[in-house]
Amino acid sequence: MKRLAMAGVLLPLLWLGACNSSGPVRRVSEPAASIQQLSVRADGSWSVDLRIDNFSSMPMRFDGISLAVSVGDQPAGTLQGQPALSIGPETADVATLALVPAAGAKILIADALAAGRSIGYRLQGSLTAAPQDAGARTFRIERDNTLSPVPGLPGVLR
C-alpha cells in the first residue's frame, strides 16, 4: 500500500516535470500595421512612419511591406519596402518609408492640415515576416484609422 501511495504521488510529479521541460510555447500571430506619423516634405512627397506590431511570442523579422494607402476617399499610392526589421516578441517598431502621393490624396492632406482637422486613412496589402528559425509568411493587412495635425509641427499628422 505504501508503494502504491508513493507511486500515486511521484507519477503526477514526473508527468508535470516532463511537461515543463518542453519550454515556452512558440506562437506566430498576425502582425498589425498603422501609420504612426505622416510628414509632408517640401517637395510634396510624404515620409510615412509605419508602426509594425509583432503579436507573436517570438521575435519576427519583417522583410517586406506592400500596403496601398488611401486618405479620405482618394488612393494615395503604395508603401513598399524591405525594412529587414527584427521586432521582439509582443512589441512594436517603426519603419520609415517614402511615398509620392497621387494628386487627389495630396490635396486632401493639404486641406486637412490647413483646416487643422483629422482625416481618415486606409491601409490594404501585406507584410512578409519570418521567425528566426522558419520560412517567411505573408500576412494580409487591412487597417482603417485617423490622422490628426500635430500642433506646433507644420505638415505633420499623427
From TrEMBL:
<feature type="signal peptide">
    <location>
        <begin position="1"/>
        <end position="21"/>
    </location>
</feature>
<keyword id="KW-0732">Signal</keyword>
<feature type="domain" description="Late embryogenesis abundant protein LEA-2 subgroup">
    <location>
        <begin position="50"/>
        <end position="142"/>
    </location>
</feature>
<dbReference type="InterPro" id="IPR004864">
    <property type="entry name" value="LEA_2"/>
</dbReference>
<protein>
    <recommendedName>
        <fullName>Late embryogenesis abundant protein LEA-2 subgroup domain-containing protein</fullName>
    </recommendedName>
</protein>
<dbReference type="Pfam" id="PF03168">
    <property type="entry name" value="LEA_2"/>
</dbReference>
